Amino acid sequence: MFEFLRRGKSLDGLGFLQADMHAHWLPGIDDGAATLNDSVAIIRDLVDLGYQQLYATPHVMADLYPNSSATILAALETVREAAQNQGITVPLGTAAEYLLDEGFLQRLEQDDLLTLPGNYLLVEMSFVSAPPDVHELFFKMQMKGYRPILAHPERYRYYHTTFDQYRFLHERGALFQVNLLSLNGHYGKSVQQIAWKLVDEGLVSMFGTDAHHRAHTKELRQLLGNRRFAALSKQQDWLNHHLIK
Ligand SMILES: [Fe+2]
């Protein structure tokens, strides 16, 4: 059930979301945790924040981080073992955060994709521009039986002045996952404003920490005192709940 508001104003933790579905704590395979110790420290912080299940979603980018499903799953086993040895009992899983590049299209055609429970597929776009065939790509994912989740839509600044593009994508089946730290202003004022606007317009289905390191998990604590954020814990049934296995 929900973590209730302390004195009606601030939250005890992020337990109302139950599962974190976007984070970079697998060690040494992207720009997140560098070492196994970093991984365990981030996981411990997320557990302390109240999460009951955690998923790692390392970047998969043809140019920068050409991770394969096999390397990701092997990294998860290493982290699971280390976490278990340190008494961490929260279930740990993995999917990936796929950049919509040419490599992605190949993986989609070969069904070589790691998904969250329920066939949810986390994807991201370049911060410079959307792929020219973005609508077709989301259509293809759905035709293949995936439920695509667009990671941090609020961070694609090229959509900020064309907000209708968000509605258009959403109407065509793209689920939106906002970063919790965007609500806190971590990525700047305009990203923060768009994040809240997406929430207020009912376009958001899930929240993720997108935690890459402990500076992120520490900053997540600051969000708990934000009254506007606290109100979200009672606002709707965020889809994060569906990822509890
Ligand atoms: Fe991410």
From TrEMBL:
Keyword annotations from UniProtKB, A to Z: Hydrolase
Similarity section: Belongs to the metallo-dependent hydrolases superfamily. CpsB/CapC family.
Q: What is its EC number?
A: 3.1.3.48
Q: Which Pfam families match?
A: CpsB_CapC (PF19567)
Superkingdom assignment? Bacteria
This chain's protein is named: protein-tyrosine-phosphatase
Q: Which reaction is recorded as catalysed by this protein?
A: O-phospho-L-tyrosyl-[protein] + H2O = L-tyrosyl-[protein] + phosphate
Which PANTHER family does UniProt cross-reference here? Answer: TYROSINE-PROTEIN PHOSPHATASE YWQE
Task: List the InterPro entries.
Answer: Caps_polysacc_synth_CpsB/CapC (IPR016667), Pol/histidinol_Pase-like (IPR016195)
| Entry keyword Nucleus | no
